[in-house]
Design brief:
mainly alpha, Arp2/3 complex 21 kDa subunit ARPC3, two-stranded antiparallel ribbon, two-stranded antiparallel sheet, 4 strands, globular
Length: 263
């Protein structure tokens, strides 16, 4: 099952090989090519392309394969890199499994929205609301306790954080405006960057922020739940632009290559 009918007959051997490749790449992105802390925001952890590959697996191969990539990359990544650092939290594994499973259906829902203008207004509206929530929280709190560690936030850190998040949002919108029509080919059944960006925003908001915060609070303690939500929202402003750009590139190359072979 795939969102692209021309890929429905991709044989099982190819799917298994691609699944293994995506799991290996995702482990590298999540555990090796990642930034654990930033100078202006020590409570953030950035994983380049990690969530993107799980989402891509769900769309390209189907929700069950996406679930497998999400769960396996977290479990194997833990066994290879983290067994002595801290215990395994199955709540986090469940989070990435859900990410791989639900992404297919979110993209299927977004693909049914015909009014691109309404989607654009919703997309920008969600970003503005989330940016406002982050701003209010940062400027009404000077100390943030996360996972038993308290961070004191200076004024410059708050300002730099908001500038970075706002800049990322603006760059994402500019990217979508520039490539929205250029990257869309009706014959390839591809997604527009606007559809991709909106779907990534919904996935990040409902899976990583809402459900993910609950899972992390369950694993590490509910006393810092609100701060976990805040940090997940801040990571959203990084993940959504990254995922949108990377998925747009992957859709344009991988899907075109496989569909061309089928034809």
């Amino acid at each position: 099952m795939t969102l692209f009918p021309k890929l429905n007959d991709l044989n099982k051997t190819s799917k298994i090989c691609l699944t293994g490749l995506l799991i290996a790449l995702d482990i590298l992105c999540q555990k090796v090519f990642a930034i654990n802390y930033l100078p202006f925001a020590p409570f953030l952890r950035i994983s380049f392309a990690g969530p993107c590959l799980i989402i891509f697996a769900s769309i390209f191969l189907g929700p069950l394969y996406g679930l497998l990539v999400g769960a396996s990359s977290d479990l194997l990544g833990y066994l290879v890199f983290d067994p002595k650092a801290y215990p395994l939290f199955f709540q986090i594994t469940l989070l990435y499994a859900l990410l791989g499973f639900i992404s297919y259906y979110v993209f299927a829902f977004v693909k049914r929205i015909k009014n691109q203008r309404v989607m654009g207004f919703l997309f920008i509206g969600f970003l503005l609301i989330l940016l406002t929530l982050v701003s209010v929280f940062l400027f009404t709190n000077n100390d943030i306790t996360l996972f038993s560690t308290t961070y004191h936030l200076e004024l410059y850190q708050k300002i730099v954080s908001l500038i970075v998040l706002t800049s990322l949002s603006i760059l994402l919108i500019v990217f979508i405006l520039i490539y929205h029509k250029k990257a869309y080919d009706p014959k390839s059944e591809n997604f527009t960057p606007l559809q991709t960006g909106f779907a990534c925003l919904l996935i990040e908001l409902f899976v990583m922020v809402i459900f993910g915060s609950l899972m992390k609070a369950w694993a590490f303690g509910f006393n810092t739940y609100l701060v976990i939500v805040l940090t997940q929202i801040m990571i959203l402003f990084i993940n959504v632009p990254l995922n949108t750009v990377l998925l747009t590139v992957l859709f344009k190359t991988a899907f075109a290559k496989f569909i061309k072979k089928k034809e």
